[in-house]
């Protein structure tokens, strides 16, 4: 679970993306999220990748969210919800390849 600590100003609109703002989050407790991806290596051959993002208690991170998401200081956001939206992509690291 993350708590919103600071909401930044609205950034200029980029080509093909909505207006965004930077939000600073703080981890309220130890949290982690995992995802599994596959890559195609040829007929019938796949490589599986296990990715994990871990956040210790008190860790601060910054993410970009669209202006349409009504985010205020003090809001609480779930780790799995943020990962499902793709907001934590830069925090994932590969832990296993099979």
Question: What's this model, at a glance?
Answer:
With 98 residues, the protein is mostly beta strands. The chain contains one helix and seven strands, in the order E-E-E-E-E-E-H-E.
Protein architecture, described:
By secondary structure, this protein is mostly beta strands. The protein has one domain (2-97). It is 7% helix and 55% strand. The protein is built from one helix and seven strands; from the N terminus they run ββββββαβ. The strands form two sheets. Strands 5-2-1-6 form a four-stranded antiparallel beta sheet. It has a three-stranded antiparallel beta sheet with strand order 3-4-7. The longest helix is centred in the C-terminal third of the chain and has 7 residues, at 79-85. The two termini are 30 Å apart. The relative contact order is 0.31. The mean pLDDT is 90.
